[in-house]
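TASK: fixed-backbone design
INPUT:
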């Protein structure tokens, strides 16, 4: 199929799926670009495997030609004068911007319902035909991929925002190791956790985008430097370790603490099916313990809001933030301007995070909240280091490389992405909502540990029903593969392997 025809199909799907609210802005400039890409293909001058493909970007990633709103009223009038590095890298590889996708305001949420443009709707419906949550906060990107409105989508994952929507929509969502992909031009939520992630229908497509984006960016101070990248390569790609998938059986870890009684039966079945599938391929399964799992969620919800409250301080109506409308009295003080800008510009969930963050950083609370949460974060990382066969490549010392190849740890962990299937949007949004904002945080319980430790993780769809020929969409659950820091390729390989038992 020509790239032009492919692009036309995606754009037609965008029009027929407007009610799902996946996009905030559509691009009008794809036609000429798709024709150019077809010409390059004919001349054998294709730029990359993504040349001429339509890619959607979450609307907290800056684009020069389209507005960047973060789904917030406070960025109503904002236009970025530049492209984020990830946008530029993909454009340089020939990709075409399909548009900007809907999200929870500033990435804060788990269900893409906290958007000033209204909630994203999952194409999957509950039994009574009300729409299900698309997951958040990259719900628009996930729905755009799931309903063929684009070839691939870029999201951000601070505590699970790429993996959870992937799990809820039956797509593949990959969060690379922290520092692999540039964050320059990505609007910050919580800098020490923010990661750009990739959503697609298949892991091989995700890998194509990762190959383009996995570069050092001197403009992002947290981007892994070239020496760190070589250090990771030399430690994790030793001959003994690089052949882990091809020749040696993998040692697969199942974290016992994830086997909670609240796990939905369909999720539990999908987890067992994926483990059974890997076992039949000759890989070995090993129970492991990650004792800090229970505290990870609370630590995340102290640390992320703390960073958010400081990041969002700049939306004061002076440099950032929309000026409030209404009379501007002569004696209006600066603090009155700040209060009105912030009061009118931010939605309720963002305000909740700012208050939580400001409290945990305050002089009376910092020791009991922020400092304790940082301690837990270190312990979570320690938990992971204790179970992986490979040492953390940036913290282990050189003399332990050999030891790491013989240590009886596991290569990857396999666990559910979310404890339950997607809830319905009405349960999340009604005034007498069945699901409180705090309940919504629980959806992230299995995704935040990898975020706190900066580890690579992918969610792939697996059916919870084994031997039925035609499974219903609602049987799909996201299964997560988590690897040691820097072990992104292995995580992608195991994700691809698991696709074999997707249905
Ligand atoms: N749901 C989590 C939160 O609200 C994660 C969001 C994200 O990864 N951007 O913080």
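OUTPUT:
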């Amino acid at each position: 199929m020509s790239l032009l025809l492919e692009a036309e199909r995606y754009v037609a799907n965008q029009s027929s799926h407007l009610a799902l609210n996946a996009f905030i802005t559509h691009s009008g400039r794809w036609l000429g670009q798709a024709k150019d890409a077809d010409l390059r293909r004919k001349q054998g001058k294709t730029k990359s495997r993504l040349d001429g493909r339509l890619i959607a970007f979450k609307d907290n990633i800056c684009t020069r030609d389209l507005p960047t709103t973060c789904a917030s009223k406070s960025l109503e009038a904002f236009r970025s004068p530049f492209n984020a590095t990830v946008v530029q890298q993909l454009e340089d590889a020939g990709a075409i911007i399909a548009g900007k996708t809907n999200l929870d305001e500033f990435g804060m949420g788990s269900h893409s319902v906290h958007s000033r443009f209204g909630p994203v709707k999952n194409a999957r419906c509950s039994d009574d035909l009300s729409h299900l949550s698309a997951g958040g906060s990259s719900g628009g990107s996930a729905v755009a991929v799931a309903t063929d409105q684009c070839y691939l989508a870029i999201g951000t994952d601070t505590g699970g925002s790429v993996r959870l929507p992937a799990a809820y929509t039956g797509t593949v969502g990959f969060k690379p190791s922290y520092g692999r992909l540039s964050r320059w031009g990505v609007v910050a939520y919580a800098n020490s956790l923010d990661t750009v992630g990739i959503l697609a229908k298949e892991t091989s497509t995700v890998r194509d985008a990762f190959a383009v984006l996995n570069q050092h960016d001197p403009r992002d101070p947290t981007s892994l430097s070239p020496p760190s990248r070589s250090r990771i390569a030399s430690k994790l790609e030793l001959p003994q370790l690089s052949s882990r998938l091809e020749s040696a059986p993998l040692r697969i870890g199942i974290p016992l603490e994830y086997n909670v009684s609240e796990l939905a039966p369909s999720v539990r079945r999908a987890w067992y099916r994926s483990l059974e599938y890997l076992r039949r391929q000759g890989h070995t399964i090993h129970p492991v313990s990650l004792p800090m799992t229970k505290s990870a969620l609370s630590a995340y919800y102290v640390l992320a809001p703390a960073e958010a409250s400081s990041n969002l301080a700049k939306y004061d109506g002076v440099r950032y933030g929309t000026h409030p409308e209404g009379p501007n009295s002569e004696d209006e003080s600066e603090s009155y301007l700040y209060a009105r800008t912030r009061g009118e510009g931010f939605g309720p969930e963002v305000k909740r995070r700012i208050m939580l963050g400001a409290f945990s950083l305050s002089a009376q609370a910092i020791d009991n909240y922020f400092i304790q949460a940082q301690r837990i974060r270190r312990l979570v990382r320690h938990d992971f280091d204790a179970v992986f066969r490979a040492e953390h490549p940036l913290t282990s010392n050189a003399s332990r490389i050999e030891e790491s190849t013989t240590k009886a740890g596991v290569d990857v962990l396999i666990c559910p992405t979310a404890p339950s299937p997607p809830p319905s949007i009405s349960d999340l949004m009604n005034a007498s909502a069945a699901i409180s904002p705090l309940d919504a945080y629980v959806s992230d319980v299995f995704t935040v540990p990898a975020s706190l430790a900066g580890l690579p993780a992918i969610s792939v769809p697996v059916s919870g029903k084994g031997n039925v020929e035609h499974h219903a969409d609602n049987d799909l659950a996201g299964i997560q593969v988590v690897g040691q820091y820097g072990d992104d390729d292995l995580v992608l390989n195991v994700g691809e392997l698991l696709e074999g038992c997707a249905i």
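COMMENT: The first strand starts at residue 23 and ends at 26.
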